[in-house]
Design goal:
- This protein is mainly α.
- It has one domain: Na+/H+ antiporter like fold (Up-down Bundle).
Length: 405
């Protein structure tokens, strides 16, 4: 991405933000539609949205900011719900999507399982973008955020297994178990070690700018180190953010340190989110326009993804009905409809080698689901919150005030 392309995208994002706030239109939806319109008018910006770009540039600040804004004491009461949806929920959703695509459009099962695995997890980028624009009760907000943050590690592991099958490999059960352990345990350990080391360093200074630099090392460093060792970078950055958020080294005697660092990460996440949704709109439009004969695939993928999410949420939430972790029915409705897909699915889809014959089909299906998720679900999420009566005054809103209203 050139400096001029970056500046143009920032200017466009600023204009979208101004208009969105004035007309009370979801900002992320406005970005996506604007990106698609730019592509329709012939603008590409000479930027290719690759898996490496998303994982290395966009996900670390977005994941870290979300975790830094949360606290472990908020997540702990939700842990049983989160772990159930983020583990068994991802696997169940992947299987349901795979068999649905196999039945509807006769995809081979290896191809269907690759798509099912990458579309199974709700995406933290898309979910957090919506939650920063609407108000919901704090416990519901934490549940939605936590699930979308934690389920990506499992989705990445399932995707890796599915890709091995599509490539003709046949991993054994011990190899799969080792991969899962490496992803999860490795991400936890690396995030913990990096965070503790930086908390120690932060205790040696009262300079808020140095604290910002240390959190930047935590966000990008933990992600990069985990990825190098084939562990979950998302989980490492998430753990680092949670630990630094709970550390009193970033609060200072008057809390100014935490406020300064938080403001910086709100801005960083705002910029990353803005550029990312514009690029998804630009590249998604270009891909679907180049393959109009594959629109049937996109339609089938949307039906499969929505149905699988519904089955997963209601069945697994129902299993908790008589426990202390019971999920209210209104929360189940929002977990279902608020299970947005976005950057993670795109990153995994575009990382599929072109040598795989089904790569274009999978990418079209992915962008179709993402487009439906961001636009249709994004536009109707706030009205659904009002209808269900679960709005609240404690949820975070878009961090930068733009315009009036």
């Amino acid at each position: 991405m050139t400096i001029s392309s970056f500046a143009i995208l920032l200017l466009v994002a600023s204009l979208v933000a101004l208009v969105s706030r004035r007309v009370r239109f979801p900002y992320s939806v406005g970005l996506f539609l604007t990106g698609a319109l730019m592509a329709a008018l012939g603008y590409s910006g000479n930027v290719e949205l690759t898996g490496d770009l998303i994982f290395n540039a966009f996900l670390p600040p977005l994941i870290f900011e979300a975790a830094f804004a949360l606290q472990w004491k908020e997540i702990r009461p939700q842990l049983a719900r989160v772990l159930l949806l983020a583990t068994l929920g991802v696997v169940l959703s992947a299987v349901l999507v795979a068999y649905a695509m196999h039945g509807m459009i006769a995809w081979a099962l290896p191809t269907a399982f690759v798509f099912g695995s990458l579309i199974a997890a709700t995406d933290p980028v898309a979910v957090l973008a919506i939650l920063k624009e609407v108000r919901v009760r704090q416990d519901l907000s934490v549940l939605l955020e936590s699930e979308s943050l934690f389920n990506d590690a499992i989705a990445a592991v399932v995707f890796g297994v599915a890709m091995a099958g599509l490539s003709g490999l046949s991993p054994t059960v011990p190899e799969v178990a080792l991969g899962v352990a490496r992803e999860l345990v490795g991400g936890l350990v690396i995030g913990f070690v990096v965070a503790k080391a930086l908390v120690f360093m932060a205790g040696k200074t009262n300079d808020h700018l140095v604290e910002i630099m240390l959190t930047s090392v935590a966000a990008f460093g933990s992600f990069a180190i985990a990825s190098h060792f084939h562990a979950s970078g998302i989980l490492a950055s998430l753990v680092a953010g949670l630990l630094l958020s709970d550390s009193d080294q970033f609060t200072g005697h008057d809390g100014a340190g935490k406020e300064t660092v938080t403001a910086f990460w709100q801005y960083a996440a705002f910029v990353a989110n803005s550029i990312l949704f514009l690029l998804i709109g630009i590249q998604g439009y270009g891909l679907i326009a180049a393959h109009p004969n594959r629109l049937l695939i996109a339609g089938a993928a949307i039906l499969a993804a929505v149905a699988a999410r519904a089955a997963t949420v209601y069945v697994l939430s129902g299993s908790l009905r008589w426990s202390r972790a019971r999920v209210p029915m209104a929360y189940q409705h929002l977990l279902f409809w608020g299970g947005l897909r976005g950057a993670l699915a795109v990153a995994l889809a575009v990382s599929i080698p072109e040598t795989i014959s089904a790569a274009a089909d999978i990418q079209v299906a992915t962008y179709g689901v993402v487009a439906f998720s961001v636009v249709m679900q994004g536009l109707t999420f706030k009205p659904l919150i009002k209808k269900l009566g679960v709005g609240g005054d404690e949820a975070r809103v878009l961090p930068i005030t733009v315009g009036e209203g």
